[in-house]
Design a protein that fits this description.
It contains 12 helices and 15 strands. By secondary structure, it is of the alpha/beta class. The strands form 3 sheets. It has a 7-stranded mixed sheet, sandwiched between helices. A 4-stranded mixed sheet has the order 1-2-3-13. Helix 11 packs across helix 12. The two termini are about 45 Å apart.
Amino acid sequence: MAGAPRRLLSGLGGVAFRQQKWKSSVSTQAKMPPCDFVPEKYKSYPYERMQKIREQNISPSLRTYYKKPLLLHQGHMQWLFDYEGRRYLDLFAGIVTVSVGHCHPKVTMAAQKQLARLWHTTNIYMHPSIQEYAEKLTSLLPNPLKVVYLTNSGSEANDLAMFMARLYTRNFDIISFRGAYHGGSPYTLGLTSIGLYKHGVANGFGCSTTMLPDVFRGPWGGSHCRDSPVQTVRKCSCSEGVCHANDQYIEQFKDTLNTSVPKTIAGFIAEPIQGVNGAVQYPRSFLKEAYQLVRERGGVCISDEVQTGFGRTGSHFWGFQTHDVVPDIVTLAKGIGNGFPMAAVVTTKEIASSLAQNLHFNTFGGSPLACVVGAAVLDAIEEDGLQKNSEDVGTYMLLELAKLRDKYEIVGDVRGKGLMIGVEMVTDKHSRHPLPAEEISQIWEDCKDMGVLIGRGGLYNQTFRIKPPMCITKKDADFAVEVFHSALQRHMERAAAK
């Protein structure tokens, strides 16, 4: 992708910031990598009218990012273009959803061809694409995970996984981690354990939370705990193959089993790396030990791969594989369709059969169009080498970001695996208190003004989430790190000028 559109060369690649009371010593001329894609001219309503419609006709619960919300017009692979033609490097991928790239040509072409052939029949009829896709998808999962139920969203998939677990085990209670996000439906809100998503209405009957084994922010952690190129700054005296932090968190998990749930349970659900909470990772062997404890109680183990699946972690196609476990149920969404609304629950034949005792139906799940899109995404991941790219570029970016953590006291933790990265901001590394929201927001805004879009997460919204389309390059990573570095330095100079 060489050569930016001519009219953009003086744009965000070398953006000039608003006047400040202090004079910055940091260059804001981070050089945006070239792109040979020229966006179409924007022809819709003016920005002000769009903003007015948003305020009057769209639910206020659907909040926008940034003080002045972006009005995006077009996308191409890792790039987004706004209504004025400004180009942005997208490091959040539509909330970890655009897996192979915005408007990836292979996926776009497959969708266009299917749109001209057959959109929708419901699954009461056979059509070629649902069988072809089910075979292709399940071939990528280990035995006995070979039966798929296609849905439309991650919340819907996790909702169905809960239902299956309860039907199959004939038990009711399900355990999730504090800090987990598993959906916003009334059913899944019981599993979601982030206060901002709780609405003060009854939910969560039969759902219990357990301590999050967070080796950075939690009570225990060390310098060898997690499966990441970057470890925490916390020190430990553990010898090789021993993790005292893991032992302590397992004791907490046992305590939950002994105090909060019956002797038999329906299951345990966990993300291999927590997504909304800011790429939180657990000690290496925690999930393996927890799965065994759950199965001893008659429960099934559910891996929520909505964000970690499809090669994003780099070393493996599925996040659960990085923990050396095989779950009983896997839920998939987001990257499965590269932005097309689709999701899936994959499980064993025995668990799937429990749902067949009575009627269960999904109007749009597994439509001809969705299945063709899903198959094209799988092809693009393989043909473009995106799992390997996630590993290479992600590891490179993590190590570069770790240099900034070592330089700046406010960068408390850099963590993740592949292109699932979190950067947690703190007042200082000793206390690990979250950096105040207004300070984080200014850094975030500065990154956007220099052409880099990143996400936010964490219980206190204190963690930057970097989870881009898996097609980004090392040059993109260099640009992003340089921009983040400039934003950090600007923050320090603002603080010194007060």
